[in-house]
Design goal:
The chain has helices at 15-26, 98-102, 125-130, 169-180, 205-219, 241-248; strands at residues 3-9, 31-33, 42-49, 64-72, 74-76, 85-88, 106-110, 119-120, 123-124, 140-153, 156-163, 184-194, 197-198, 202-203, 236-238, 259-260, 268-271, 277-283, 289-294. The chain is of the alpha+beta class and 313 residues long.
Length: 313
């Protein structure tokens, strides 16, 4: 079973918990997700099944959008409301200061929090943090595309943030609190967009469970979106029947004989004569169609970002 299903991850689940549920319901181990969410966070979590797992690392426009609650006046060891309080301030932050908050856009540097799955010397940071250890972490650059405070009163508010992959929203809020001198923590988090997927694309786990009970695993097939939804805006290379057969058997094709809908220097979505997505490819230096990733072979590799330490909130 190949395709993508977008899940509304509930609070209290890890991203891997959701993967485990989908594996069980769809009866396949070839499942991966497109961007980790912390257990307290909710929202958009794309899940890839079968050959679609090969598309995880090629998601176009992999920016994220979040709706985040925040509170000034204290800090915690996790930078969110679930952690142990590490400092307290009774200073009030006025509504006018939200102008400063909304100016926190552009490229910034973040130091990954200790309670994260980033690896340092082969150890997950959260494993060290649980032992009371703290290690030096290298800052990384991320981009805040937009930030809007949608509600604010009495030191508490709600912000909508559009950002690059890998941004820690709780760290963004923590750092804003440090700059204002009061401290701040994240109180809630909903991911409203992940790449091309939004809340409108999401399914609830309980609904899928009920459907599986009612219709069986095969009944779930209709919930899957095709892999090429990710690449709808990519330029296309369309093969005829003979080219499709040659391509699927590993034969190198001359680009000059392929029908492209437009010419550019990047990746093409390659389609067979039956309109099925076969691969992502580019035009090589020898003017042949050079395959970057195939989707038409029976094997698929499970790709789960948290296993590589690549995290979003």
């Amino acid at each position: 079973m190949d395709g993508i299903i977008c899940i509304y991850k509930p609070s209290g689940y890890t991203s891997f918990d959701v993967v485990a549920v989908i594996r069980k319901l769809f009866k396949t181990r070839k499942v991966g997700h497109g961007g980790t969410l912390d257990p307290m966070a909710e929202g958009v979590l794309p899940i890839f099944l079968g050959n679609a797992t090969r598309a995880v690392d090629f998601q176009p426009g992999d920016d994220k959008e979040y709706l985040a609650g925040f509170r000034f006046g204290f800090t915690t060891d996790t930078q969110d409301i679930t952690g142990q309080v590490t400092s307290v301030s009774d200073e009030y932050v006025s509504r006018n200061k939200m102008i400063f908050v909304e100016r926190k856009i552009g490229e910034i540097e973040q130091i990954p929090p200790m309670y994260s799955a980033v690896q340092v010397n082969g150890k997950r940071l959260y494993e060290l943090a649980r032992k009371g250890e703290e290690v030096e972490r290298k800052p990384k650059k991320v981009t805040i595309h937009s930030l809007k405070v949608e509600h604010y009163a009495d030191n508490e508010g709600l912000m909508r943030v559009s950002c690059s992959k890998g941004t820690y929203i709780r760290t963004l809020i923590h750092d804003i609190g440090q700059e204002l001198g009061t401290g701040a923590v994240m109180t809630s988090l909903i991911r409203t967009k992940s790449g091309v997927f939004t809340l409108d694309d999401c399914r609830q786990l309980d609904d899928i469970r009920r459907m599986a009970t009612r219709e069986g695993t095969e009944g779930l097939r209709g919930l899957l979106m095709p892999t090429d939804k990710l690449f709808a805006d990519y330029p296309k290379a369309v093969l005829d029947e003979m080219q499709t057969g040659l391509f699927c058997n590993g034969v190198k094709l001359a680009a000059a004989r392929i029908r492209f809908d437009r010419i550019h220097k990047g990746l093409y979505a390659v389609y067979g004569n039956d309109k099925a997505l076969l691969a992502l490819a580019q035009i090589g230096e020898d003017c042949s169609l050079k395959v970057v990733q195939r989707f038409n072979t029976p094997e698929a590799v499970i790709s789960i970002e948290e296993e590589n330490g690549e995290l979003d909130e």
